[in-house]
Batch of 2 targets.
Target 1
Amino acid sequence: MTSDQLAIHTFTTKPWSIDECIENYARHGFGGISIWRETVEGEDLARVSRRLKDSGLKPVSYVRGGFFTGTTAEARRQAIDNNLRIIRDSETLGLPMIVLVCGATPGQSPRENLSQIQDSIAAILPAAENAGIRLAIEPLHPMYAGDRCAVATMADANDLCEALNHPLLGVAADVYHIWWDSKLEQEITRCAAADRLFAFHVCDFKADLEHPLLDRELPGQGLGTCARVNDLVKAAGFSGMTEVEIFSRRYWTENQHQFLEKIKAACAPLR
Amino acid sequence: MTSDQLAIHTFTTKPWSIDECIENYARHGFGGISIWRETVEGEDLARVSRRLKDSGLKPVSYVRGGFFTGTTAEARRQAIDNNLRIIRDSETLGLPMIVLVCGATPGQSPRENLSQIQDSIAAILPAAENAGIRLAIEPLHPMYAGDRCAVATMADANDLCEALNHPLLGVAADVYHIWWDSKLEQEITRCAAADRLFAFHVCDFKADLEHPLLDRELPGQGLGTCARVNDLVKAAGFSGMTEVEIFSRRYWTENQHQFLEKIKAACAPLR
């Protein structure tokens, strides 16, 4: 895969400001960018949008909405309001898609969490439709199913999409989160066949994590799951940009230009 | 749940020898014991068996067989031989069931791993039948699916059991590994309905793990998933002993008698 087929998530180069991300991703020859809310906090979003247009980078997604669950109706209503704001910000930034990390509340069962998630996505879909922005549900690894995201498999995400059945609602498939699933091929096929495979993220999983969130690896450097899942996603017909989303305390201490070159080299063997 | 309904896994009190485990579990009023191979390494198993009989503790399971996968036929044959030895040892110890942690080899897909696991279990079932020993496939959390156990869900375990369809082959359901699954209720019901729910382990999952293997919690002290899964398992008709299997570097530094009393208190609210 050549670098113009890759989009970088700004959290991947966490030490950089949004201006540094835009300038350097373009300079290193990457094709696109996905912007994290953390990277543009306190920024003038209209200014960022102009800068993004000038860069020639393809705007891929805004990361991340969601976190819909809560034990009270008031908490869930606030989460919906927050997501409506995120949709407006995404529109201002010129980003056509929002990645949803859907939330999970300790003490609630997966079914309770998923039911709240479904209701809340239903509540924000009209605003997404008005803005013409796609929503991509991202299943997270079951490590995070208790406190971050009850959508723990491609099947969970596909089930939600089927229940809500809206052309702007689909799935973000991230290798880091889904590689382990014996039902992966059938669920990727199911997702793509319904035109719901909106996004594909690469990042490798390490067997012996040193941190539950921030110890992710370059494709091929961990368990080596990216090539297989990339093949499945491409065989299912996915033709969008491949997004690189690596959180790593280790890589963040390195020179970020060199890190980008390592990403390029690690993704090159992917078809 | 009273302590006579609980069996302790010897790895839970890792600092203790097998003799200390047997003596102290009985003294603290626990009903049963599951013995780890690590705890009896180098021991005269016939002597341990006599000591176990004298203690009045119910022998529950031998932990753990499995690790069947490998990139070469020779590696897989050695794993089968090892499991045949484990079956003989389990018989010597008087333990009626072996827990299988089935293995996963980095670089192999879940499907490849599961296919090798199925073939290898088929190869050891006749020996288990001769010994009258039950084999319990334990699904492990998907954190471990790349290098320890490709059986990552109750569905995977149920599928394997269905494919091999043998009355001595069933499933060990461990809260730590399966709490996150939105399909859990249906898969526990499916397992129990086929008389395959052989074992039930309790241990709570922490959201922010400090170690990928050795940072497990007492029921109710982590995400609080044990009560819900315990209810599901009991509603499905499970009537065996509830096994306590907690690996924790933190608890291992404490007085193990006090740790056992904490376990008793933490399990008391479970139905």
Note: Chain A has a mean pLDDT of 96.
Target 2
Amino acid sequence: MTNALHVSAPEGVPFIDFSRELDFPVAEVFRAHRDPELIVQWLGPRGLKMEIDHYDFTTGGSYKYTHTGPDGVAYDFSGIFHTVRENEFAIQTFEFSGYPDVVSIESQTFEDLGDGRTRLTAHAVYPSMEARDGMAASGMEEGLGEGYDRLEELLGTLSEKTPQEAS
Amino acid sequence: MTNALHVSAPEGVPFIDFSRELDFPVAEVFRAHRDPELIVQWLGPRGLKMEIDHYDFTTGGSYKYTHTGPDGVAYDFSGIFHTVRENEFAIQTFEFSGYPDVVSIESQTFEDLGDGRTRLTAHAVYPSMEARDGMAASGMEEGLGEGYDRLEELLGTLSEKTPQEAS
């Protein structure tokens, strides 16, 4: 069984908060957020093809990637990492090519729960209520949930390749 | 006489909006936002000493500067430029060292009003109502207003040095 994704879009303020626990150590979870060769294997919903233009998960670094659906339609995403602290914390901007100049900002905490488990907690802030509501209605929750399920599957595969206490 | 600064902090949402017209052409106003040697002469309230660590006003660039008050107390500010379009538009993150990891994001439009005049319009978004209210109560409006007054004084000085239609 997988861990549950908790998402909330509070009334009246342009935020989306979510959290997800993972049955893997914080260093492994962080590595899967930093290494483009791993990110490309889990970020986003199933059934999309992801291609990374660049992904520099460091303070001051930037990223750009494309998700292509089964219909061949491509979606570009890009942003900048304002802060990245290893195994701990990141703040990044986020822009979808379909809504140019509508840029959100997301902070993400990597919390070591002990026993080789991690909790991810994120707070995303949108420049308008319309932008927040549009994101919440876009299938974001399903995409996030599938992404984290894929992340756990990937980390399970990596653990099998290099046995450790992880799982 | 100087142009008026209009600031609003709308009820219930974590935004601050402001606008300011300037009696100078958009290219001059933009240049004063890009060139660190000019920024250091106007950004922030009167009576503070500004020192720039770095200020790279380009897409993907970053900045860091320090304001030091007459009491010798120093305040650091830093962030990243998500987007910069010449004479037109910029989006940047903003962090004050006094509130680490509380990062806001601000979009700014440079609008050519014709006749050598420009309107700056900005929309700043905070990660919580508390952060927005704290910023609004921090003397931000006075600091912004004095900064733009200083900007007009600076641009006036530059126009005298290189005569043009500007003023």
Note: The mean pLDDT of chain A is 94.
